[in-house]
Amino acid sequence: MEPRITLVTLGVEDLERSTQFYRDGLGLPVEQELPGVVFFRLGALRLGLFGRADLAADAGLEDDGAGFRPITLAHNERSPEAVDRVFAEAEAAGALVVKRPQATDWGGYSGYFEDPDGHLWEVAHNPAWDLDEA
């Protein structure tokens, strides 16, 4: 099987503001920056930021969505303390805390925040996952 890269692209209102949030606030490494789009390297995954209206147009859709988007992005850490550190970084960068990290009913530890465009991120520790294998 040939190597593959999975890309998750977020439509954002203000590309510069969102780039600063992810690059400077959360410390994600920029892999490529082009007019109208920025890509961050997350291991074998890439996170793309694309102007919301431009992304809708690229897909041939109207940019009229509102309210809860039925998707969350998630980031997993090795410990509850690491979850708390990531949360502190996100909050310092301007994230809106939706649910502070706490013990879960599935035996882990997690919380949620929104980025500057309202994209919902879960930061979690799942003790059943061996992150060294990832």
What would you note in describing this structure?
- It is built from three helices and eight strands; from the N terminus they run βαβββαβαβββ.
- The protein is α/β, with parallel strands linked by helices and 134 residues long.
- A hairpin with a 2-residue loop joins strand 3 and strand 4.
- The radius of gyration is 16 Å and the shape is globular.
- The mean pLDDT is 86.
Please state the CA-atom Rg, rounded to the nearest Å.
Answer: 16 Å
Number of helical runs?
3
**Helix and strand element order:** EHEEEHEHEEE
Largest sheet entry: 4 strands, mixed
Q: Report, as a whole number of angstroms, the end-to-end distance.
A: 18 Å
How much strand content do the residues show?
Answer: 35-45%
- Overall average residue pLDDT: 86
Query: Which strand order do you get reading across the main beta sheet?
Result: 1-4-3-2
Shape: globular
Please describe the structure with a list of short key phrases separated by commas or semicolons.
about 130 residues, alpha/beta, 4-stranded mixed beta sheet, about 25% helix, globular
Describe how the helices and strands are arranged.
Blueprint: E1 6-12, H1 15-25, E2 30-34, E3 37-42, E4 45-51, H2 52-58, E5 73-77, H3 80-92, E6 96-103, E7 109-114, E8 120-125
Parallel strand pairs: 1-4, 5-8
Antiparallel strand pairs: 2-3, 3-4, 6-7, 7-8
In short:
The protein is of the alpha/beta class.
